[in-house]
Amino acid sequence: MNRGDRLDTLNIAIELPQEIARRLAGPHDDLSRVALEALAAHGYRGGKLTRAEVQRMLGFNSRWETDAFLKQAGAYLDYTEADLEQDLNDCGEAAEGLIN
Questions:
Q1: 13-31 pLDDT, tens per residue?
Q2: FRET pair for 73, CA 20 to 30 Å: which of 9, 26, 38, 55?
Q3: What's the whole-model pTM score?
C-alpha cells in the first residue's frame, strides 16, 4: 500500500482468548495478517471483492502473487467453459493477425 491508501483505512479490533489466538496464528504467523488474508479470501469468494481489491488490500505487487494467494486460499476464479471458449477464440484471432 502506498501512503495515499493509508489515509482511507479502517482498523478493526478482535478479542480472542490467548490460547485460541496462538492456535490460529501458529508460532511464526502474524495474527493480524492471518485475519486480513481470511477476510480478503472470504470477500473474493463471496463476490464482494475483485482480484484487484484483494491485491490492494494485501499489498501484493503483481497479479500473479494475488492469483497464487487466492489459489492457496481455495478462492478460485469464476471461470466458465464459455469464458474458456471465448479466450481460445481470442487467441486464435490474435495468432491470425500475427501471421497476416
A1: 999 999 998 888 878 788 9
A2: 9
A3: 0.69
